[in-house]
Design goal:
single chain, 185 residues, alpha+beta, five-stranded mixed sheet, two-stranded antiparallel sheet, 20% strand
Length: 185
């Protein structure tokens, strides 16, 4: 299966899961993938044009999802099995590891999209998906009651502090109503 097909399938699967979580199980189509996984916004940006809700991989189709997308830029990566080992953070000989490259690109896109924060979701082949956020967002998650597993990564070279947690833990341990209240502030 090609990389784009695999990614597109995962974006649809993720959109449904996010919608069900956000609606407390009532609706599976609040969120959906953006046109060309954000390619339309990137192309228009080169022409000095904005395409507000086409940045990142996921946008909203139902207005109830707009506050979430106004707050978070969602970037999804699927199928990578090599080059994303967390131990690469400790290897001084390597350049940027993929997670940092993805994070930096998403952070740049976040600025153009006028969003407040980034969520990067990485799903390796045959593994459970992982949510990557910065330390400030994770601090909010902890304040909202998140008590699951996580891994904190500090990259001094890149001045980045990220936290990785199982996506399923995020969905199970942080009620969507608390996230909705957080983003309304």
């Amino acid at each position: 299966m090609g990389k784009s097909k695999k990614g597109g399938n995962y974006e649809r699967e993720f959109s449904k899961a996010l919608s069900l979580w956000y609606s407390d199980g009532d609706c599976d189509d609040i969120f959906w993938r953006t046109s060309g996984s954000g390619a339309r916004a990137t192309t228009r940006r080169k022409q000095q044009k904005k395409t507000r809700y086409e940045y990142g991989d996921i946008s909203f189709r139902d207005p109830t999802g707009q506050p979430f997308i106004d707050y978070f830029l969602l970037e999804l990566k699927r199928g990578y099995s090599k080059g994303i080992d967390v131990l690469d953070f400790l290897d001084k000989k390597k350049g940027d590891i993929l997670i940092l490259k993805w994070w930096k690109k998403a952070e740049e896109e976040k600025v153009f999209a006028e969003r407040k924060s980034t969520m990067l979701v990485v799903r390796r082949d045959g593994k459970a998906p992982v949510l990557v956020v910065d330390k400030y967002v994770f601090k909010c998650f902890r304040h909202l009651g998140y008590a699951g597993s996580y891994l904190r990564i500090n990259s001094i070279k890149n001045d980045v502090q990220l936290v990785m947690l199982p996506l399923d833990d995020f969905f199970k341990k942080i009620p969507s109503e608390k996230i909705r209240r957080l983003i309304e502030k």
